[in-house]
Every structure is written in structure tokens, then in C-alpha cells.
Design a protein that fits this description.
With about 150 residues, this protein is α+β, with helices and mostly antiparallel strands. Helix content is about 20%, strand content about 10%. The chain has 2 domains: about 90 residues, Ribonuclease HI, Chain A (3-Layer(aba) Sandwich), CATH 3.40.970.10; about 25 residues, no CATH class.
Length: about 150
């Protein structure tokens, strides 16, 4: 087995920390207190925060303005929990908190998730299209060694 050769990369190394928001397990979701009488149960499967909520104002705060947010209303806790559990098991529950927003944890740096900036174009580049390719490593030799 030969060792792949490494070509120097023109891109600048950037330390990026990935923040993965917590997705509550269905067993962590609590039914309302007996004194509390929600008029419905709202399941948020994609939003700034996910779970089961009892009031529209809480749902709106977590979903309005979030492209692709998904919320569903159910009449009973059992129906709401059943739907959340199914979506959780399918792996389709996703929290997308707005960076720096109300649901963004204060201990996670906003800069940590900012996209890295590309190096400035080299003076010898004739167009912006050419300069972008200086940031891409030639992987053809690496890929030719992969048995697909």
C-alpha cells in the first residue's frame, strides 16, 4: 500500500468549533403539571429550540423567521409525545438556534461558527474565478487510490 502524497494547500488553516444544539430525548420531555391546562400541544421538530410546548407564544418565539421551521399541533399529550418520538427516531428533529439570539448558548462563541474567510486573491490571478481555485487542493491523486 502506498502512502498518498500531500500537496501543499494554499488555503489558510482555520480553527472552527462546531456547535451542535441539544436535541431532547423523548424521555426528557415532561407532561404539563396537573394544575396547568394547555389548550393544545405544539411539537417543534425544526426550530431554534425543539420539543413539545403548550402555548403558541412559546412556539412562535422558536419558529417565526426560521426558514424551514416545522411545528405541529396535537390535542393530547400522548399524541404529541408519539409524534415527537417518531420524528426523533427518524432523526428529523433539528435545532437551528440563531447565532447570538435568545436560544444561542452564551458559552459558545459566535466567532466559532462564523464561516472562514477565503484568502485574498493572488495578484497573478486574472479573474475571481481563477483565484478561488487557489484555495482548493487537487484531490485527483488521493481519489485515484480510493477503491470505489
Amino acid at each position: 500500500m502506498t502512502s498518498p502524497s500531500h500537496h501543499p494547500s494554499h488555503a489558510t488553516a482555520v480553527n472552527v468549533v462546531t456547535y451542535v444544539p441539544p436535541i431532547p430525548h423523548p424521555s426528557e420531555l415532561l407532561a404539563p403539571h396537573p394544575d396547568e391546562e394547555p389548550n393544545a400541544y405544539w411539537i417543534i421538530t425544526i426550530g431554534q429550540e425543539v420539543g413539545i410546548f403548550y402555548y403558541w407564544v412559546d412556539v412562535a418565539e422558536r419558529t417565526l423567521g426560521i426558514s424551514g421551521a416545522i411545528q405541529v399541533r396535537k390535542e393530547t399529550w400522548a399524541d404529541a409525545l408519539g409524534l415527537y418520538m417518531r420524528k426523533y427516531n427518524e432523526g428529523t428533529v433539528e435545532a437551528w438556534p440563531t447565532v447570538g439570539g435568545h436560544f444561542w448558548p452564551p458559552h459558545v462563541s459566535q466567532a466559532a461558527v462564523s464561516p472562514p474567510s477565503l484568502p485574498s486573491p493572488t495578484p497573478s490571478s486574472t479573474s475571481s474565478e481563477d483565484s478561488i481555485w487557489t484555495c482548493v487542493e487537487d484531490l485527483s491523486e488521493h481519489m485515484s487510490q480510493v477503491g470505489i
